[in-house]
């Protein structure tokens, strides 16, 4: 692939050219890394308390521009302005607040309780990775990279950020916010280009790659990273299941399915794409969901009355059409939507079902568009099996009035997150970990646990006091006495308390001999 010299930002609703920017030449990347390294050395020398405090300045700068940022996200990505506000910017503000508060505590040195070696102490200390790469998609073009950048920088790293080539203006906006908030120059550097620039970025050997995007690209990134042994964090696609139990409130369940399936026009990694409904209620559920779908207003995101914006790019239309063409040919029932039009952007919300639905791509492959596929189950066990019959494992939801049954089901689901009587939204909760299993990737972000993805862990092991510094009994030379003493140690692991107590006097005596008489080399 030849790198483009200009990158266009288009309004997906109209195709209008919004702005152009020069692509970043790949031969400029070494200089980006050099500058990042210098900035990172100075930044990481600051105590984490100060680095975390900087987040409140960033929050203030953002709060001053909330409406403009929401407008830009809506314009460049095509989602309704309300979705930009509620689903990207509010979680981003919450994320800043959360990490400003918890980062200093989350990365404090951590003592490890010792077992056999009670005379020694261990602790974990954390240190930054260095210069990391953040490579992100276009569907949540603000929140996803912003969260990773905030976590990376607060933990003392520098970031080279490659936003999606589709939504690079929003990437540039993130860069501007950090600059306005007074972060050191070069700590965050944004580069502009397509996948070829992304792969050139990996060749510069960042300390870690935080990638969010498709499975296909995730595999390429992991293969390229493997050549340099670069660790990767992969947030990939999903085919998320919603299980609706027989006791569910139908009005609630259908509203959850409606928003879960069609917000951001279904272009959400955690979208509800498969609905598994108890057979006793499937007819009523489907009828009510259909009624609600017909009331959704769809169109240009500039019109604030619309519930669905436009899909962001042509590629999504091709997937939608290919899956629905196959489904039609296999006799699936398309209950609404599913109409292909020349207008490349408006894909109507589509509900699809039928006896063979579980065999079709529309049920098994990520659509990433406004399509939900409905199937049924008879027993709870069958619902669990059907939900787990997927190569993806990002999120699943359970809708029921029976919270304990929902919890039982949740613990059987092979996914990174289960929401009970909620859908989709926990990637917007900074205090909860986010990340999938299976083809949905690996590694967690958000939460105190997620912060650890951005640091190296250093284990420090030392004597409790200088009184306990003596040559270790396992050092050279090996002797019969040494063997007999160590052999006695095994008695400490016996189930019998008497056996354990009996071992003690000899062990203590022998170890004293070690220290006094059995000279180590
Ligand atoms: P994509 O994989 O096409 O692109 C993502 C990013 O990778 C872009 O910036 C792109 O330029 C870059 N890229 C492409 N080829 C590359 C290469 N060879 N080396 C390095 N970088 C490369 O994905 P997309 O279409 O932008 O996003 C949609 C996908 O993202 C969906 O599959 C969706 O499920 C997934 N996604 C996952 C999550 C999650 O949290 N799990 C969140 C959002 C989106």
Keywords:
single chain; alpha/beta; Aldehyde Dehydrogenase, Chain A, domain 1; Aldehyde Dehydrogenase, Chain A, domain 2; 3 domains; 6-stranded mixed sheet; 17 helices; 20 strands; 42% helix
Question: Summed up, what is this model?
Answer:
The protein is an alpha/beta fold and 521 residues long.
Structural account:
Helices cover 42% and strands 18% of the residues. The chain folds into three domains: 29-236 and 448-458, Aldehyde Dehydrogenase, Chain A, domain 1; 240-428, Aldehyde Dehydrogenase, Chain A, domain 2, CATH 3.40.309.10; 470-519, no CATH class. 44% of the residues are buried. Helix 8 links the parallel strand 8 (209-212) and strand 9. The longest helix has 26 residues, at 81-106. The chain is built from 17 helices and 20 strands. The mean pLDDT is 95. It has a seven-stranded mixed β-sheet with strand order 12-13-14-11-10-16-17, with helices on both faces. It has a six-stranded mixed β-sheet with strand order 7-6-5-8-9-19, with helices on both faces. With 521 residues, the chain is of the alpha/beta class. The radius of gyration is 28 Å and the shape is globular. Residues 135-140, 144, 162, 164-165, 194-195, 198-199, 212-214, 217, 220-221, 235-238, 269, 366, 368, 394, 427, 436, 440 line the site of nicotinamide-adenine-dinucleotide.
Describe the protein's topology:
Blueprint: E1 6-10, E2 17-22, H1 29-44, H2 48-64, H3 66-77, H4 81-106, E3 110-112, E4 120-128, E5 131-135, H5 143-154, E6 158-162, H6 168-180, E7 188-190, H7 195-203, E8 209-212, H8 215-228, E9 232-235, E10 240-244, H9 250-262, E11 272-278, H10 282-294, H11 314-329, E12 333-336, E13 350-353, H12 361-364, E14 371-377, H13 380-388, E15 392-393, E16 395-399, H14 403-410, E17 417-420, E18 437-438, E19 441-442, H15 447-451, E20 455-463, H16 480-489, H17 497-516
Parallel strand pairs: 5-6, 5-8, 6-7, 8-9, 10-11, 10-16, 11-14, 13-14, 16-17
Antiparallel strand pairs: 1-2, 3-4, 4-20, 9-19, 12-13, 15-18
Helix pairs in contact: 2-4, 3-4, 4-5, 9-10, 16-17
């Amino acid at each position: 692939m030849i790198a483009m010299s200009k990158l266009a930002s288009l309004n997906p609703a109209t195709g209008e050219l919004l702005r152009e920017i020069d692509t970043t030449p790949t031969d400029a990347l070494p200089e980006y890394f050099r500058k990042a390294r210098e900035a990172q050395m100075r930044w990481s020398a600051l105590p984490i308390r100060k680095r975390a405090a900087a987040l409140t300045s960033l929050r203030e700068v953002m709060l001053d521009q909330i409406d403009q940022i929401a407008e830009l996200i809506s314009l460049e990505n095509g989602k309704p302005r309300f979705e930009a506000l509620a689903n990207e910017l509010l979680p981003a503000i919450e994320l800043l607040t959360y990490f400003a508060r918890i980062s200093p505590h989350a990365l404090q040195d951590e003592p490890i309780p010792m077992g056999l070696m009670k005379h020694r102490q261990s602790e974990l200390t954390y240190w930054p990775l260095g210069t990391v790469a953040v490579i992100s998609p276009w569907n949540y073009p603000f929140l996803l990279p912003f969260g990773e950048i905030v976590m990376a920088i607060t933990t003392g790293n520098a970031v080279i950020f490659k936003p999606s080539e589709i939504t690079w203006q929003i990437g540039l906006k993130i860069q501007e916010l950090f600059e306005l908030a007074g972060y050191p120059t070069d700590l965050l550097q944004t580069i502009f280009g397509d996948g070829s620039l992304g792969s050139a970025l990996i060749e510069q050997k960042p300390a870690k790659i935080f990638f969010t995007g498709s499975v296909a690209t995730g595999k390429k990134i992991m293969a390229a990273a493997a050549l340099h042994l670069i660790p990767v964090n992969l947030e990939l696609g999903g085919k998320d299941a919603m299980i609706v139990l027989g006791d569910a409130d139908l009005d609630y369940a259908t509203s959850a399915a409606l928003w879960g399936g069609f917000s951001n026009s279904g272009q959400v990694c955690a979208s509800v794409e498969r609905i598994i409904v108890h057979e006793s209620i499937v007819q009523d559920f489907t009828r009510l969901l259909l009624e609600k779908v017909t009331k959704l207003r769809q169109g240009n995101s500039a019109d604030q009355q619309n519930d669905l914006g436009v899909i962001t790019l042509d590629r999504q239309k091709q997937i939608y059409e290919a899956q629905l063409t196959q489904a039609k040919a296999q006799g699936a029932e398309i209950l609404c939507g599913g109409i292909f039009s020349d207008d490349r952007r408006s894909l109507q919300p589509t509900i699809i079902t039928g006896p063979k639905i579980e065999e079709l791509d529309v049920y098994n492959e990520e659509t990433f568009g406004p399509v939900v596929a409905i199937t049924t189950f008879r027993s709870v066990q069958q619902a669990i099996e059907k939900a787990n019959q997927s190569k993806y494992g990002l999120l699943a939801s359970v809708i029921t009035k029976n919270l304990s049954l929902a919890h039982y089901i949740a613990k059987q689901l092979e996914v990174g997150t289960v929401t009970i009587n909620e859908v989709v939204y926990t990637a917007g909760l900074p205090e909860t970990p986010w990340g999938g299993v299976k083809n949905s990737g690996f590694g967690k972000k958000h939460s105190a646990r997620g912060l650890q993805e951005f640091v190296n862990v250093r284990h420090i092991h030392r004597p409790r006091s200088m009184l306990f510094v003596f040559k270790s009994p396992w050092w050279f030379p090996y002797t019969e006495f040494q063997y007999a003493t160590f052999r006695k140690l095994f008695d400490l692991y016996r189930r019998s308390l008497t056996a354990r107590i009996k071992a003690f006097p000899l062990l203590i005596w022998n170890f004293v001999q070690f220290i006094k008489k059995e000279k180590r080399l």
